[in-house]
Amino acid sequence: MSDFRIRTYPVGQLGTNCYVMYRESLKKAVIVDPGGDGTYILDMCRQLSLIPEVVLLTHGHFDHILAVKDIKEAFPEVKILAGEQEKALLKDPAVNLSSAFGRACTVNADEYVRDGAILSFGGITFQVLFTPGHTAGSVCYLIQAESVLISGDTLFSGSLGRTDFPTGSQSMILSSIRERLFVLPEETLVYPGHGDITSIGHEKVYNPAAGNRE
């Protein structure tokens, strides 16, 4: 039986899903998309006796990055990773929308990862999937051994990410979902940036991105 665990913590004014993943045998945390309320996220790690090892960002919008600074200050050795095409957005408060919400924020990742990269943190192996559309540098993280996909704001339960923000593209997000995500096994559980958990099989039937195929 797997000792893989994933906890969901909706944080910030937009209820962004921050995910904390770990193995019971190691107690090293992988934190995905720490939006607002870094104190709360760190408190949850302490309650679980977890030491944060890495922060993975699916994209650079403010509601997914605001607590990066808090985590880095509490654990300076933590690595911050993001998609290689998201660097400019992460560094521009106007483009990442943080200035528009009164909390100008920038992030300098320690590493910008490429499509297909294999990452290993906390005893968990991730594959980076480049899924542009919601932003130009959006990525998803696939944990193949656990049949889990962290989809950020690319794919939601019954919906898909907005494309009317800077660097967004409707045609690109549809291609990303159809060509990169819908080809995954149908039993793959999808953990989105907002809302409820779903599955690839469910979304292939009920998601609007599944329709109007060319």
From TrEMBL:
Pfam families: Lactamase_B (PF00753). GO terms for molecular function: hydrolase activity; metal ion binding. Its cofactor is Zn(2+). Residues 15-194 form the Metallo-beta-lactamase domain. Signal peptide: none annotated. Keywords: Hydrolase, Metal-binding, Zinc. It comes from the Bacteria. This is Beta-lactamase domain-containing protein. It comes from Lacrimispora saccharolytica (strain ATCC 35040 / DSM 2544 / NRCC 2533 / WM1).
